[in-house]
Amino acid sequence: MTDRIFSLAALTVLELPPPQMVEVAARAGYSHVGLRLVPATREERHFPLVADTELRRQTQARLRDTGIKVLDLEILRLQPQTCVADFEPILAVGAGLGGSELLVAGNDPDHGRLTERFAALCDLAVSYGIRPHLEFMPWTDVRNLSQAVDIVAAADRVNGCVLVDAFHFNRSGSCLQALASLAPERMHYAQLCDVAGPVPDDMDEILRQARNERRFPGEGDADLVGLLRTLPATVPLSLEIPTRHLMEQGVSAEQRARMALEKARGVLAQV
């Protein structure tokens, strides 16, 4: 268990600038972090690592001083108007920071075009040593595990992967049997959290929970033990657990990061 890579995801401590995030990860006992190079929404607070060379220099200094490494990079969206070549500066910065995994969202209802763009992104990323992971999310055009697997398989690129997030796995109704049939080389990291209560009927509520109110592992209703037994045994785990209610109660980013890691290790011990 001690050899498992745990990475602190940006969404867990989104209020922190990247240099401070690295410091918190080090103090809390993580070995890696995930960096958000592109904001997921227009409303969220964003720290422009791609454009701000001084912020990037400070982040690199903290990575060097703490020994923390970068696992994944967020978040590129494949949309109808996407020009994949425009992503190259982002990939270059991500690779310079040491990231090897890339989170990709599918926001194009034309799955043929989406597949072509994902393949093109894989081709662009391969020279940077980066593996794009297509993440299925119920409110996007890649709603579940089955759709993500089909697109990645059709793209047929050696560095093309599928990202399994425990929240989306639960809320999309994806099944462990389908996950068990996915080749291990298609998964180079996974996102771990827990989720409480039945699946809401309203997609806006699912989205709100995903971005604001997840649960620490073992504090919800998801079958995390089953999920972890089905995923590759050594796959790195990114702890992506936004808990707005705790933030509003004054629980610090470092406290939340520590709680996430403690709870994740507790669940992993049951596997």
List the topology elements.
Elements: E1 6-8, H1 18-28, E2 32-36, H2 53-66, E3 69-78, H3 88-97, E4 101-106, H4 111-126, E5 131-135, H5 145-155, E6 161-165, H6 166-171, H7 176-180, E7 190-192, H8 203-212, H9 224-230, E8 237-239, H10 244-248, H11 253-268
Parallel strand pairs: 1-2, 1-8, 2-3, 3-4, 4-5, 5-6, 6-7, 7-8
Helix pairs in contact: 1-2, 1-11, 4-5
List keywords for this structure.
271 residues, alpha/beta, eight-stranded parallel beta barrel
Compact overview of the structure:
This protein has 271 residues and is of the alpha/beta class. It has 11 helices and 8 strands.
What does this structure look like?
The mean pLDDT is 96. Strands 1-2-3-4-5-6-7-8 form an 8-stranded parallel barrel, surrounded by 4 helices. With 271 residues, the chain is of the alpha/beta class. α1 packs across α11 and α4 (111-126) packs across α5 (145-155). The chain is globular. The protein has helices spanning 18-28, 53-66, 88-97, 111-126, 145-155, 166-171, 176-180, 203-212, 224-230, 244-248, 253-268, and strands spanning 6-8, 32-36, 69-78, 101-106, 131-135, 161-165, 190-192, 237-239. It has 11 helices and 8 strands. GO terms for molecular function: isomerase activity. Residues 22-256 form the Xylose isomerase-like TIM barrel domain. It comes from Pseudomonas taiwanensis. This is Sugar phosphate isomerase/epimerase. Keywords: Isomerase.
